[in-house]
């Protein structure tokens, strides 16, 4: 039988060597990422991690500059309310994310491979004397389309060395951001739970692990929050306000129509003049086929009829909104305004999602399951603001709930 103290000793040795193992694994992952990026080139690799890093660093620097600004110090006394302070910090995040999105849009327009359809220029003559430009795949025997458009490709060529190098570095940054997040969360789980008193807690005896934990406590949750909000803002720009509104109307409208159509005939509202008339006519129709089924069958058939009518109205509304979306997308100015409005709406949604996550974290801490306050430092301005804002509202509520069931 394997002795218990020997097993604990082996686990402690593994925990002490875990930083070296993780360093080697991360190094291999970064090398693979560089090779993939070098092969694809900067134009074709994803830029998510790079702009996430830019947004996170921009927010940290902006918050640091505001703290050292004399005007900000004067206003700090007026921002004692956790909610007001959280809103002020979110305004800074909004400004940084807006700037990052502008930079991302410029880089996308200038560097991403794209194909434009351009009207063919007439540079040759056919047998009837008309000018035309032979396009790719043109056959002399086929009928000539004088209104045809030809694809004009930009950025589809083989990447140069500098482009490959930038692509490799970008993939390294993307991978490093993910690895840093995973490692930070791992250290947080160990540090904020009872695991730090187990054998795996030996990892904190390694100096590099303590150093990494210090940086993680300062930046990780701020970067996570910025990344979530940035992702929602990018999604808003991509979908647009009107298109998002159309999707919401279709989804929630469909659920509402189905629910109300089959609820009203079976509810007390079935006695109202309009609903009652629909149910009576439906019962009469079903009664032609079966008298026994006229009661329940009439109500079900009334629900089907109301569902069909509501679906037709929703279809026409969706059709009109789709045409309006196409009209808005057809002009640069209206598309820009629509995208900016969507970014603002989705930014608010992202902030609410992050607030809900912090609310769950605080609830776990309140009941002693996960001590989130031990995973970030006071220098993490966004994390501190979210924690204080959530605590101001959740703590009294949880105290009442506990006292009620105590």
Helices and strands, with pairings:
Layout: H1 4-40, H2 48-67, H3 70-76, H4 82-111, E1 114-119, E2 124-125, E3 131-132, E4 149-154, H5 161-192, H6 207-239, H7 241-263, H8 273-289, H9 294-329, H10 332-366, H11 381-405
Antiparallel strand pairs: 1-4, 2-3
Characterization of the model:
It is a single chain. 24% of the residues are buried. With 406 residues, the chain is mostly helical. 73% of the residues lie in helices and 4% in strands. The protein has a two-stranded antiparallel ribbon. A hairpin with a 5-residue loop joins strand 2 (124-125) and strand 3. Helix 2 (48-67) crosses helix 6 (207-239).
Structure characteristics:
two-stranded antiparallel sheet; mainly alpha; 406 residues
Concise synopsis of the structure shown:
The protein is mainly α and 406 residues long.
Could you report the average pLDDT, rounded to the nearest whole number?
79
Low-confidence segments: 122-126, 141-147
Structural class: mainly alpha
Radius of gyration: 31 Å
Strand content: under 5%
Q: Outline, from the CA principal axes?
A: extended
Give the biggest beta sheet.
2 strands, antiparallel
Question: In whole angstroms, how far apart are the ends?
Answer: 47 Å
The H-and-E topology, N to C, reads as: HHHHEEEEHHHHHHH
Please bin the fraction of helical residues.
over 70%
Q: Give the number of helices.
A: 11
What is the total tally of β strands?
4
Major beta sheet, strand line-up:
1-4
């Amino acid at each position: 039988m394997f002795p218990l103290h020997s097993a604990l000793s082996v686990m402690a040795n593994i925990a002490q060597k875990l930083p070296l193992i993780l360093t080697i694994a991360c190094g291999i992952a970064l090398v693979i990422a560089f090779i993939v990026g070098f092969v694809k080139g900067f134009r074709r690799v994803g830029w998510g991690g790079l702009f996430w890093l830019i947004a996170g660093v921009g927010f940290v620097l902006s918050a640091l500059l505001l703290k050292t600004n004399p005007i900000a110090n004067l206003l700090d006394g007026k921002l004692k309310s956790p909610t007001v302070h959280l809103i002020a910090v979110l305004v800074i995040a909004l400004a940084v994310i807006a700037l990052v999105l502008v930079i991302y849009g410029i880089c996308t327009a200038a560097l991403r491979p794209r194909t434009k359809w351009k009207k063919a220029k007439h540079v040759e003559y056919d047998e009837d004397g008309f000018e035309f430009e032979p396009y790719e795949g043109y056959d002399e025997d086929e009928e000539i389309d004088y209104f045809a458009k030809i694809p004009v490709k930009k950025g589809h060529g083989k990447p140069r060395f500098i482009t490959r190098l930038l692509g490799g570095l970008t993939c390294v940054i993307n991978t490093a951001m993910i690895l840093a997040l995973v490692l930070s969360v791992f250290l947080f789980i160990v540090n904020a739970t009872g695991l730090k008193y187990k054998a795996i807690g030996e990892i904190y005896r390694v100096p590099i692990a303590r150093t990494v934990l210090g940086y993680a406590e300062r930046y990780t949750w701020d970067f996570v929050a910025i990344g979530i909000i940035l992702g929602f803002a990018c999604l808003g720009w991509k979908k647009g306000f009107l298109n998002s509104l159309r999707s919401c109307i279709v989804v929630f409208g469909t659920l509402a129509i189905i629910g109300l159509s089959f609820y009203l005939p079976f509810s007390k509202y079935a006695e109202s003049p309009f609903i009652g008339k629909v149910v009576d006519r439906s019962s009469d129709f079903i009664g032609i086929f079966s008298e026994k089924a006229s009661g329940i069958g009439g109500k079900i058939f009334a629900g089907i009829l109301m569902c069909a009518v509501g679906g037709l109205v929703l279809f026409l509304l969706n059709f009109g909104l789709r045409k309006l979306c196409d009209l808005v997308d057809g002009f640069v100015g209206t598309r820009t305004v629509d995208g900016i409005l969507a970014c603002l709406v989705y930014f608010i949604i992202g902030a609410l999602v992050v607030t809900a996550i912090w609310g769950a974290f605080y609830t776990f801490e309140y009941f002693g399951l996960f001590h989130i306050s031990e995973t970030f430092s006071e220098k993490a301005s966004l994390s501190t603001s979210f924690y204080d804002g959530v605590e101001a509202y959740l703590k009294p509520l949880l105290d009442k709930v506990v006292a009620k069931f105590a």
